[in-house]
Automatic annotation (TrEMBL):
InterPro entries xrefs: Amidase (IPR000120), Amidase_CS (IPR020556), Amidase_dom (IPR023631), AS_sf (IPR036928)
Molecular function via GO: catalytic activity
Protein name: Amidase
Span of domain Amidase: 16-362
Pfam hit, one: Amidase
Length: 374
């Protein structure tokens, strides 16, 4: 098991943090946990988020391991090793920010940074029993982050509690108001999105809203399935542009080689159709948020499968069915550990807010955190 590609000691005496290996740290190669990028020269300067963390006194303790090239949901990596799932070592840690989630869950760091293009923060957070936030698209700088260009990818933090997550957001996001990101007071209206997921997880979502004394009603979210498919189309196009040339190296893992070859076949017409779905779904989410403070739904439709199941070919496509759509729309979305009746494992409660209202998402998450701990 390997949560870190490298252990480091950079920065001040503040909280400890791990940095995903798609985020530049000056003097160290950014390899995206891929043999094909092993000979990449060291980064010349820190990514902007790393600069901000160091300026805020945080202590960087490692480059976090990940699913190769951030292009996968299991977190399995036969080149750099597979991080351990802190909830159950037999299960996948989730991808692609596997090492970031595992490092936080195993208490190797107080917090971690990951990236989320199609659920790559929220998925591992739910698998590993920690908190993970995908901020509003564009809220946190991607300068010095691979891939260099993306219309979906967001840098965001992991933590074991909301207090630390808010502190991390305050460090990496310009003008993040920590005062309004602490526990939500007064009335709280939530829309429970109708979602296909295991019955015990759906029940846990409803129960959480009740425990947090929220006014809740169930609502459909038009285009959720279409947004899931369209999101993959955009990911395929943008990942192929960024990393498709590495297929020729012959150094990619088998799963990455196959996925990148398939991604290269995405047509311009498919991308145009996906962009129309993006516009429609974004409008649908905005409309759903008109009369509620946040939307809530499961992060993942089921508990993570075992490593053995994943290696034997069990499909993980559905893992991102409820998280990838919000990359397409660009709304802030947070995964909070969610207790399930009769299970030692926690699932994930996904909290989705209006664009730019990341602080409100954090404040409502803190309210749920307190209620679920009671």
């Amino acid at each position: 098991m390997n949560e870190f590609i490298q252990t480091l000691s950079i920065g001040g005496a503040g909280p400890s943090i791990a940095i995903k290996d798609t985020i530049d740290i000056a003097g160290y190669a950014t390899t995206a946990a891929s043999r094909a990028l092993a000979d990449t020269p060291p980064a010349q300067q820190h990514a902007e988020v790393v600069e901000r963390l160091i300026a805020s006194g945080w202590h960087i303790v490692g480059k976090a391991n990940m699913h190769e090239l951030a292009f996968g949901m299991t977190g399995i990596n036969d080149y750099t090793g597979t991080p351990q799932n802190p909830q159950d070592a037999a299960r996948i840690p989730g991808g692609s920010s596997s090492g970031s989630a595992a490092a936080v869950g195993l208490k190797l760091a107080d917090a971690a940074l990951g990236t989320d293009t199609g659920g790559s923060i929220r998925g591992p957070a739910a698998c590993c029993g920690v908190i993970g936030l995908k901020p509003t698209f564009g809220r946190v700088s991607r300068l010095g982050v691979a891939p260099r260009e993306s219309t979906l990818d967001c840098v965001g933090p992991f933590a074991r509690d909301m207090r630390m997550l808010v502190a991390a957001m305050q460090a990496i996001a310009v003008n993040f108001d920590a005062n309004t990101a602490h526990a939500w007071q007064g009335a709280c209206k939530v829309g429970i999105v109708q979602a296909e997921a295991a019955a015990e997880i759906v029940e846990a979502v409803t129960r959480a809203a009740d425990k947090a004394s929220c006014v809740a009603h169930t609502l459909p979210l038009a285009g959720l399935a279409a947004a899931f498919d369209a999101g993959l189309t955009v990911i395929n196009v943008e990942t192929s542009r960024a990393f498709g040339h590495l297929v020729a190296s012959g150094k990619l893992g088998a799963d990455l080689d196959a996925r990148l070859r398939a991604a290269a076949n995405t047509t311009a017409a498919q991308l145009d159709a996906a962009e129309q779905v993006r516009r429609d779904f974004t409008a649908a989410v905005d409309h759903a948020l008109d009369n509620v403070d946040v939307l809530i739904l499961p992060t993942l439709p089921a508990l993570p499968i075992t490593l053995e199941q994943a290696r034997s070919g069990t499909s993980v496509i559905a893992m991102s069915s409820l998280i990838r759509p919000f990359n397409l729309s660009g709304h802030p979305a947070l995964s909070l550990p969610l207790p399930i009746s009769g299970s030692p494992l926690k699932a994930g409660l996904q909290i989705v807010g209006r664009k730019g209202q990341d602080e409100q998402v954090c404040a409502i998450a803190a309210r749920f955190e307190a209620a679920l701990a009671a």
